[in-house]
Amino acid sequence: MTGYQAIHPNVTIKLVNNPWEDYWTKLPLALDGENGPAIFNVHNSYHENLINYLAPLEIPLEELQADFTGVDAHVIDGKVYYIDYGMMTGSVYYNKDMWETAGLTDADIPKTWDEMREVAKKLTIKEGDKLIQAGLNFNDDFHQNYLLGLNYQLGENLFQEDGRTPNVNTDAMKQIMQMLVDLYHTDGVGSENFGEKGSDSFGQGQSAMVIQWGHYYNTLNTTWTDINFGVFEIPTFDGNPYAYNRYNGESSFGVNKNAPAEQQAVAQDFVKYFLANDDAQIAFNLAMSTFPAKKSLADNEKVMENPSLSILSEHIDRYIWPGPMPSTMETSLKKAGQDIFFNGVDIDTALNEAQETIIRDMKSSTFQSVESLYKYAK
Amino acid sequence: MRRKVCKIALNLILLALGLITVYPFIWMLSSSFKQNREIMALEQHLLPQVFTVDNYINMNARFNFLRFFANSLLVTIVVTLAVIYTSTLCGFVLSKYKFKGREILFSFVLGTMMIPWCVTIIPKYSMIQSFGWLDSYKALIIPAMFSGFGIFNMKQHIATLPDEILEAARIDGANEFFIFHRIIFPMAKNGISSIAIFQFLWTWEDYLWPYLVINAREKQLLAVGLKMFSGQYSTDYGALFAATAISIIPVLLIYLVFQKQFIAGVASAAVKG
């Protein structure tokens, strides 16, 4: 912002910070009138609430496509209203001290889920039947970090060919869910009763490995500063996946189509400046621990210094964004997992119920999957 | 002897309940002197293992704490004074004047207390927007000047005051303006104290409405500022607890000053008028 105002001293940009959750309540109300912000933060999970207030970006589509990854998924009737400046996904965070104590070295970093299970067993510590240290902990986030992503490794999309019907009671999803159950109940590397959240348990030094999204890198560096951690790319089932995982984008700014014309013109110019400015792109991506969507920054030195990003660089084009999924995808699969782990429901029944719930919840949604736009789509 | 044992037992139960009630506050206060990693640690201690005042020093990093505090104080005091005056005035009229439609009017006032606030917030926002009051304290003060609860409370309270005093004043030549300001107001201080405390507390902690209608950072209120510590992916609990600990000081002071009148006022409102 300072850089832009230095180039354009006649422009004053007033920054208003907002609490994250309630910002999404206030923003549509503010945009509905004449005095809403000319430019504002966008998150794709609120796409349906915001799209009617957005002006299309005045940047030629082919230029955006040439410079940024994942632009096609944001094209609506030939226009783009916002794009991703960064891509966030899940990776494995491990406690280096526990790793060393278990006699593991860098050579033991697992590439496949079979290897991951063996490593997790070595990292697990028990006193009799009592779990003292979990080798792997996925409590509270298995739906987000496993069920909504590993399906791609097995060649299954989250939505069927029509782009609207969920695909969550498939053999692939059952295999993933079975693996989760086996990890806890057969391998004994963790327990549904060992800490409410896997992410907290890792930070508290109780669990040796967790799969978390990029933001966790910053959380570890600010909240859990005592943890000596490393990070590696998510394992695959066979080393040659259809895609490694799901990603989600952090969005560029939105321009308010109801703002006065001269404010809109500045807002459009500011978005161009933001996307063209490499320093801003690097700063935003490092702040969010997202992999830059700007292709020219994929091997940037500063970006590669962040281990949570450097591990993604080799296969970054092998990650899929399904589109701004309705929240029922997460909540229904979370309930399915909880039913399996805590209520003794069998996997088939739980996933069938999730499938039905999602279909019912999505009746009023306009969501359309963009999985078909994946570079290596079948 | 048996009575004494019962009394001791009752006091012990009340003490236990009091401790349970106050414990979260003590924990929050103590945690405001802890580092985030200690607040989130698996093994919890009431007292900080590593004492730090950094949370208090760094509070201003996210917003201008003192400015927000002063804004909240200003709005809360103005709203509370306005509600005290309008509630006492309406309570006086509804309890001491007999006129056609009085009961319907009072029912209407009671009805406003029964409508959930979340139902009215969007139409209220649209009205404020069309009046051009957005980003102005008018949006916070004017709609809050009349309180259904305050009117109900003051009507009940003023109804307990003897009519004979008012009649005597009228015979002595006092007009209604004088009676209201010089007789009713001083005699209704218990009721006024109770609604003052309630209204001060509600306005002080009100979050969503100020957040929706105030945009400028320099005009924002403290309750909104406290939410700034919660980010997209994490919360700075240490700074949040430090800011919260300071933010409750005015409410505690108000209660300590008015507590006797508050209890008397609440009790009198429960009497049928």
For the record, the CATH architecture of the largest domain in chain A stands as 3-Layer(aba) Sandwich
Oligomeric status of the shown chains? Answer: heterodimer
What structural class do helix, strand and pairing data of chain A support? alpha+beta
Helical stretch count of chain B?
15
Terminal residue distance of chain A: 42 Å
Shape by Cα distribution of chain B:
globular
How far apart are the first and last residues' alpha carbons of chain B, in Å?
41 Å
Major pleated sheet of chain A: 6 strands, mixed
Q: Average pLDDT value of chain B?
A: 88
The helicity of chain B comes to over 70%
Determine Rg of chain B (CA atoms, Å): 23 Å
Q: What proportion strand of chain A?
A: 5-15%
Beta-strand proportion of chain B: under 5%
- Helix proportion of residues of chain A, in percent? 25-40%
CATH class of chain B: Mainly Alpha
What is the CATH superfamily classification of the largest domain in chain A?
Periplasmic binding protein-like II
Write down the CATH class of the largest domain in chain A: Alpha Beta
Structural class of chain B: mainly alpha
CA-based shape of chain A: globular
Architecture overview:
- The complex is a heterodimer of chains A (378) and B (273).
- By secondary structure, chain A is α+β, with helices and mostly antiparallel strands.
- Chain A has two domains: 2-83 and 252-276, D-Maltodextrin-Binding Protein, domain 2 (3-Layer(aba) Sandwich); 89-246 and 324-373, D-Maltodextrin-Binding Protein, domain 2, CATH 3.40.190.10.
- Chain A is 40% helix and 12% strand.
- Chain A is built from 17 helices and twelve strands.
- In chain A, strands 4, 7, 8, 9, 11 and 12 form a six-stranded mixed β-sheet that branches. Chain A has a two-stranded antiparallel ribbon with strand order 1-10.
- In chain A, a hairpin with a 2-residue loop joins strand 2 and strand 3 (79-80).
- Chain A starts with a helix and ends in a 17-residue tail after the last helix.
- The mean pLDDT of chain A is 93.
- The two termini of chain B are 41 Å apart.
- With 273 residues, chain B is mainly α.
- Chain B has helices spanning 2-31, 36-39, 54-57, 65-96, 102-113, 117-131, 138-141, 148-159, 163-171, 176-187, 189-205, 208-213, 222-227, 237-247, 249-269.
- Chain B has 15 helices and no strands.
- The model of chain B has no long low-confidence stretch (mean pLDDT 88).
- Chain B has a single domain (59-269), classed as Orthogonal Bundle (MetI-like fold), CATH 1.10.3720.
- In chain B, helix 4 (65-96) packs antiparallel against helix 11 (189-205).
- The radius of gyration of chain B is 23 Å and the shape is globular.
- The interface between A and B is medium-sized, with 30 and 26 residues.
